[in-house]
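Design job #97: recover the sequence.
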């Protein structure tokens, strides 16, 4: 029976009651960055679309700021169905869906336009099909942003400047291998621990996109920011199969369309933060190195690239690089 919007009769009033009782399936959606961050913007857009286009049969409850744990934990919970959705970077994703690892190679993407074209195109869309066999539904590729290095010790212009620095990285072997070739000492750590680790000096630095650095208030605990842009950090909107498998075809369409709107909103916020965030961080006291020797960083990566070619296939790497 369709749900009445207005109850003119007692029967309709009862139906309305019954509808509102079952009306709202609450979707728990989590992510590590704070409220007002790019992930929050993406989640808010997704939720608004889903709520509107299912006439509020679904309603979101958002959990920003790692309230549901780090990214690996949240992906596990989505896999188990104890959490409904997560927006996550690819940081730990390769441990669940190994085919994804290739997109974490440093200096693989030239710029935002290149990355977005790859993820929206056949390569990215094909990768999304690798998730369901692992008990995860990938609604869309979304975006974290190009990552930059911050640290408390010194300005970084070239790879040698990173030598011996203990830098927190994501739990991502592809990143760690690349960063080692820069000279750093990568220290993998879940995101919820990062602020305290920086504050207490357990690590000297970390690397993240501008929207994460600003929304996590890392300027309070880091002096130097170098615009290395050493790796593009993709993100994913993942839904639990427990939710997806119960959706009607029509609702599935609503969720997929909502994901598209969410991606567009999240990317817009990344663009805005990249445009305005650096000046903001400077105001908060960070010293910013803009003239990073990116060519030297790419040179330093050569041994790591040989290993990547072995692991992922030089052809597959080239296929991504060649996308225009
Ligand atoms: O996805 O862990 C990280 O550094 C990520 O960039 C952050 O959790 C946002």
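Job complete. Output follows.
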């Amino acid at each position: 029976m369709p749900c009445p919007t207005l109850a003119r009769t007692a029967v309709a009033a009862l139906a309305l009651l019954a509808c509102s009782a079952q009306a709202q399936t609450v979707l728990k959606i989590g992510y590590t960055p704070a409220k007002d961050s790019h992930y929050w913007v993406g989640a808010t857009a997704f939720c608004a679309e889903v709520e509107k286009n299912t006439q509020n049969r679904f309603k979101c409850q958002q959990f920003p700021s790692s309230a549901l744990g780090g990214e690996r934990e949240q992906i596990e919970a989505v896999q188990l169905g104890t959490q409904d959705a997560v927006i996550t970077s690819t940081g730990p994703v390769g441990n669940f869906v190994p085919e994804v690892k290739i997109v974490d190679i440093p200096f693989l993407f030239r710029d935002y336009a290149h990355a977005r074209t790859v993820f929206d195109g056949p390569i990215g869309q094909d990768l999304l099909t690798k998730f369901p066999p692992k008990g995860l539904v990938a609604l869309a590729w979304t975006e974290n942003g190009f990552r930059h290095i911050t640290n408390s010790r010194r300005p970084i212009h070239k790879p040698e400047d990173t030598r011996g620095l203990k830098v927190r990285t994501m739990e991502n072997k592809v990143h760690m291998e690349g960063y080692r070739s820069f000279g750093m000492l990568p220290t993998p750590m879940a995101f919820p621990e990062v602020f305290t680790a920086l504050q207490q000096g357990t690590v000297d630095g970390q690397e993240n996109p501008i929207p994460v650095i600003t929304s996590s208030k890392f300027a309070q605990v880091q002096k130097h920011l170098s615009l290395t842009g050493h790796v593009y950090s993709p993100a994913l909107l993942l839904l639990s199969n427990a939710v997806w498998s119960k959706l009607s075809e029509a609702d599935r369409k609503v969720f997929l369309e909502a994901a598209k709107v969410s991606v567009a909103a999240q990317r817009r916020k990344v663009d805005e933060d990249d445009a305005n965030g650096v000046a903001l961080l400077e105001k908060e006291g960070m010293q910013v190195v803009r003239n990073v020797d990116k060519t030297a960083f790419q040179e330093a990566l050569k041994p790591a690239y040989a290993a990547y070619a072995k692991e992922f296939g030089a052809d597959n790497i080239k296929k991504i690089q060649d996308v225009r």
